[in-house]
Amino acid sequence: MASFYELRCRECGKRFPSAPLSSCDECFSSLEVIYDMAAARQTFTREHIARGPQSMWRYQALLPVPEDYVPVTPSGMTPLLAAPRLAKRIGATNLYVKNDAVCLPTLSFKDRVVSVALAAAKNFGFDTVGCSSTGNLANAVAAHATRVGLKTYILVPADLEPAKILNTRVYGANLVPIDGNYDQVNRLSSQLAERYHWGFVNVNLRPYYAEGSKTVGYEIAEQLGWRLPDNVVVPMAGGALITKIRKAFDELIELGLVEKKQVRFFGAQATGCSPIAHAVKNGLAYHEPQRPNTIARSLAIGNPADGPYAIRTINESGGYAEDVSDVEIVSAIQELAETEGVFTETAGGVTTAVTARLYAHGRIAPNELTVMAITGNGLKTTDVLQGKYEPLQAIRPRLADFEALVAAGQEKAEHEREEVYVR
Amino acid sequence: MSVKVVLPTAFQKHTNGAKELESKAENLPQLITDIENNFPALKAHLRDGDGKVRRFINFYVNEEDIRFLGNEKYAFKDGDEVLVIPSIAGGCF
Question: In which residue ranges of chain A is CATH 3.40.50.1100 found?
């Protein structure tokens, strides 16, 4: 059962009844959902949650959906994996991977936010939903809209990875490639939301959409046995995820589900699009917009809507932000796959490479319980691995050929073992 | 010389429903003053307690973020279309 909720301006605090609104009409800032936390004390308990479904909907009492909402798609509740082999390689001893590369149904954490946004869209009576996206959101909106019977208009930069375009069109969505970067697509979607009576997932449904991100935080705490980690490392595009994981942890503390603890938040960006990391490193309260130029297209947002809030979250927690090069991103994708069997997309490469650097620079101590948020699946961005593997030579179907192959492989492995990983 | 300014729905509560404005402003600071002179009720909402234009309000000139064009230094050209968008669409990846 969902608790009572309404909208509140994040700057001036003005409250609004639940409605599809994109900004405060007094100060034009963004809005967020707040709940009746006294009521939530009765409905959001460890016992209630344990009786819930094996999906993000076990936390329905603190999600902005109607009381009688029946979830349509079991997104979330992805594995929290101990990552001892990666940890060893990067000088950590207590590292976990929150693996949203296997979030259902479209293999990214965007399934969480879209689940909530489309529940709100149905509740508000929209028959069409739209979004601007760098890919993962497009995939998720297309799939979820099909499942709940909504029409779609999905705007993406025209140069998006082919897999992400295909993974949107296959659901029958109206995909509109825009000749521009994400920030330009985003601006257009703000204009469209004013013109059409549609639910735009990241415009007038944004407060609802963003709440879905909290479930990453709830799950991390529950999967750790109802305790909070020392650190989380989170990729940043628009900057919403990192702020919402913090909101989740704060709510769990407020409701007494976990012990109070100062979790440090670390943000990860690609150097080619690092407005938030730049601000954190230079002590700025507000980011300066950038023109993105990175292979991590899912993080290529030059003017992040939640940038100032992400900066605040990081600074107040005692965390930090880092950015890594495209070369490091690809190496990190390979490293995570080779060590932990998790194949992530470029955003996950960013997070993995940044995590390694945070340990290498002593910003995270080896024994601290650290969770890195892997948010998308590597099958969506296989193009960045083109040319990374030599073409394989076929052998004849003969035992002798196979034995020769194995012997050659062992010899190669001997050499490689002598290599030292330096970052 | 004049530029066309398109105002967001969120402003209309403070502009008696006006959605557009023709302005002879030569740059962004002049434009903001012009908007405020035309719609005095909007002034208190456009600026924060220190009198600065709120950071969440974005200005675009012919589809480009004005910050990439030089921001306050950008000189408007005749026929420019200026788009005002409060609180840009939310983050997503």
Answer: 5-74+110-210, 80-107+213-385
